[in-house]
Amino acid sequence: MVTQAAPAMTMAPSEPEIDWDSLASRARLARRTRAVVLYAFLIAVSLPIILPYFWLVTIAFSARTGVAETAVLWRSMAVVVPVIVGFWLAAALARNRRQLWFGFAAVAAVAVVAFALLVGPDLHLGNFIFLWEPDFASVVRSRVGEVKGAVQFPNVWHAFGNSILIAGAQTAIVVTVASLAAYYLSRFQFPGRSSMLRSLLVLHAFPVLTLIVPMFLMLYWIGLLDTLFGVILVLVAFELPFAIFIMKGFFDAVPWDIEMSALTDGASRRQAFVSVVLPQVRNGILAVAVFTFIRGWEEYIFVFTFLIRNSNWTMSLYMYWVRDDVMGVDYGVVSAVGVFYLVPSLILYMAAQRYLMQMSVGGVKG
Amino acid sequence: MAKIEFRHVSKRFGAVEVIPDMDLVIEDGEFAALLGPSGCGKSTSLFMLAGIYLPSGGELLFDGHLVNEVEARDRNVGIVFQSYALYPHMSVRDNILFPLRFKKTPRDEALARVKAAADLVRVTELLDRRPSELSGGQQQRVALARALVKKPQLLLLDEPLSNLDASLRLSMRTEIKSLHEQLGVTTVLVTHDQIEATTMADRIICMRAGRIEQVGTPDDLYLRPSSLFVAGFIGSPPINLVAGKAEGGTFTADGTRFPVVGASGEITVGLRPEHLRFGEAGFAGRITQIEPMGREILYVVETGMGAVRVLEQGSFVGHTIGEQVKVAFRPENSLVFETKRQKLIVGAHVRTPA
């Protein structure tokens, strides 16, 4: 061993001198290039996602009846795209946290000034006329001389209330039933348990639209057609399987020990469930609740099929009819309704973001 | 406080019979340990005591009253789980308070009892923290306080020390034992660690595959193990077991001959490492391994009967690997078992060969 190792040792000095500095700078350059390319790519692919929302908001606050004007859009883009690049540059060049915040603040300040100068004069709230004028369609049409044929719109707050009712009731039912069912599936052994679990997934795999005609007939015969309750039941039925499956994962992660401990501490099975087990799956319940609520909030096909009277319209139907009625005349109003429709789910997502992340982290285990 | 009785208790899970037939009495105020390897049914017995599992057959009595059907919450049993099972969403105070919530204890009295229980295990300054903010040892104390706050008639400890590090384990051992002396509550400890059992318990119930192998004091189990299993389970490093044949007063194992008294036929001789010593006479071997363990040294000696462990007191390594030695023992320290039935032959012993 020793004699073999000796020649290898003596070879090292005869090798050419290594230029560590040039190796380091080459690696530095490669790292920088990779970062630049990566960020450029990410900005490029995220633009088509961000821009439509940005435009939606800009149009909602700037478009005027009967005027097909796009200059303001381009001016606003001339502000937004450099701002995004500016933020990125600030993040890339900052050497510490303070410089980073300083850079962000500077870019934001420039952005605000530029926006106020270039886009500001065009902004107005007139497109949100539907919030205070139920017959806004006639008003908008009369501005361009068309007076007849406007759809009778219900008050937008009525549609808003309907949507809240559908999404809220659906969420309440789904969360309650899914929690109880998932707990039972997670904790108890009963005949047919595994096939039930399998069928939960299979049920979720079906495209629900295929059932739209039978559902229509069923609702008609039960007498729940054109009622909010009917739609709620249908939505609950379709949302439950997946919610149960998600909740089961959360219940599985709760150790048996604390439940047994609660039982020996004097709790009944129900008290142990409520006071010890449920608090452990709080994040799961919140995640399921948010997803179910947003699912109900954005529901379109079923409400379109099963609800007929305009007093039963939800926000999605309201949006549909606004588009149908005034799109050609005033796309600003359509965009404004879109923004109004978007805000609640945006708020909900932002408020619950922390819990939604948990779903992928702590949630699903067979 | 309660006297616990198992009368022909059995437990099945589906087709699996975990405990076939268990008879056991634990006296009022006793500290008993259920000791055995994992899967021997000791935890199952504990959960039957707690009321979490229903016995499949037989009778379970607390103070002479049949409790088979009594629900867990009505048994007034305190239990400390291996994982401590603290409620993560509650403060330490609420954790300890939890058992009193269901007893309709008046608020003032309940808080006073929480304070007393916390004082007892010295977690008073932790009452406002969450379990996740506590160390393992502190969680253990909180779990003890929660088990004790309801003044249980029976305290169950399920592997309470196995999640602690070595030094904490040592101090908790002493602490749990002194708590028991202070409160006098009937206590059942479940463990697979013989040291935990022998150091804390008044009486050890050694279990194997759902059956009780031996019940006795730590001394009984160490000095007079009733079976090969108990002899092998108790003691560290483990006992040396040599199987062979006894005929006409001579025990022969792989060519080595020992004088034997009181036994004949197929027997197994048990010699504890700490009872063996190197000497002028004895059976011959060669040291193949030396493990200094601080205040004692373990030698592995290769003999004609296989490897034999010898434990020498002191920290001085007086021998070298490869050294030829002779190993001797005192006859009264030898244990003789029937190989077939695995039972101790009382009164039989072997001598060091001349």
From TrEMBL, chain A:
<feature type="transmembrane region" description="Helical">
    <location>
        <begin position="36"/>
        <end position="61"/>
    </location>
</feature>
<dbReference type="InterPro" id="IPR000515">
    <property type="entry name" value="MetI-like"/>
</dbReference>
<dbReference type="InterPro" id="IPR050901">
    <property type="entry name" value="BP-dep_ABC_trans_perm"/>
</dbReference>
<comment type="similarity">
    <text>Belongs to the binding-protein-dependent transport system permease family. MalFG subfamily.</text>
</comment>
<keyword id="KW-0762">Sugar transport</keyword>
<dbReference type="Pfam" id="PF00528">
    <property type="entry name" value="BPD_transp_1"/>
</dbReference>
<dbReference type="InterPro" id="IPR035906">
    <property type="entry name" value="MetI-like_sf"/>
</dbReference>
<keyword id="KW-0472">Membrane</keyword>
<keyword id="KW-0812">Transmembrane</keyword>
<feature type="transmembrane region" description="Helical">
    <location>
        <begin position="272"/>
        <end position="294"/>
    </location>
</feature>
<feature type="transmembrane region" description="Helical">
    <location>
        <begin position="333"/>
        <end position="352"/>
    </location>
</feature>
<feature type="transmembrane region" description="Helical">
    <location>
        <begin position="164"/>
        <end position="185"/>
    </location>
</feature>
<comment type="function">
    <text>Part of the ABC transporter complex MalEFGK involved in maltose/maltodextrin import. Probably responsible for the translocation of the substrate across the membrane.</text>
</comment>
<keyword id="KW-0813">Transport</keyword>
<protein>
    <recommendedName>
        <fullName>Maltose/maltodextrin transport system permease protein MalG</fullName>
    </recommendedName>
</protein>
<feature type="transmembrane region" description="Helical">
    <location>
        <begin position="197"/>
        <end position="222"/>
    </location>
</feature>
<keyword id="KW-1003">Cell membrane</keyword>
<feature type="transmembrane region" description="Helical">
    <location>
        <begin position="73"/>
        <end position="93"/>
    </location>
</feature>
<feature type="transmembrane region" description="Helical">
    <location>
        <begin position="100"/>
        <end position="120"/>
    </location>
</feature>
<feature type="domain" description="ABC transmembrane type-1">
    <location>
        <begin position="160"/>
        <end position="352"/>
    </location>
</feature>
<feature type="transmembrane region" description="Helical">
    <location>
        <begin position="228"/>
        <end position="251"/>
    </location>
</feature>
<keyword id="KW-1133">Transmembrane helix</keyword>
TrEMBL record, chain B:
<dbReference type="InterPro" id="IPR013611">
    <property type="entry name" value="Transp-assoc_OB_typ2"/>
</dbReference>
<dbReference type="Pfam" id="PF00005">
    <property type="entry name" value="ABC_tran"/>
</dbReference>
<keyword id="KW-0547">Nucleotide-binding</keyword>
<dbReference type="InterPro" id="IPR015855">
    <property type="entry name" value="ABC_transpr_MalK-like"/>
</dbReference>
<dbReference type="Pfam" id="PF08402">
    <property type="entry name" value="TOBE_2"/>
</dbReference>
<dbReference type="InterPro" id="IPR012340">
    <property type="entry name" value="NA-bd_OB-fold"/>
</dbReference>
<dbReference type="InterPro" id="IPR027417">
    <property type="entry name" value="P-loop_NTPase"/>
</dbReference>
<keyword id="KW-0813">Transport</keyword>
<dbReference type="InterPro" id="IPR003593">
    <property type="entry name" value="AAA+_ATPase"/>
</dbReference>
<dbReference type="InterPro" id="IPR047641">
    <property type="entry name" value="ABC_transpr_MalK/UgpC-like"/>
</dbReference>
<feature type="domain" description="ABC transporter">
    <location>
        <begin position="4"/>
        <end position="234"/>
    </location>
</feature>
<protein>
    <submittedName>
        <fullName>Inositol-phosphate transport system ATP-binding protein</fullName>
    </submittedName>
</protein>
<comment type="similarity">
    <text>Belongs to the ABC transporter superfamily.</text>
</comment>
<dbReference type="GO" id="GO:0005524">
    <property type="term" value="F:ATP binding"/>
</dbReference>
<keyword id="KW-0067">ATP-binding</keyword>
<dbReference type="InterPro" id="IPR003439">
    <property type="entry name" value="ABC_transporter-like_ATP-bd"/>
</dbReference>
<dbReference type="InterPro" id="IPR008995">
    <property type="entry name" value="Mo/tungstate-bd_C_term_dom"/>
</dbReference>
<dbReference type="InterPro" id="IPR017871">
    <property type="entry name" value="ABC_transporter-like_CS"/>
</dbReference>
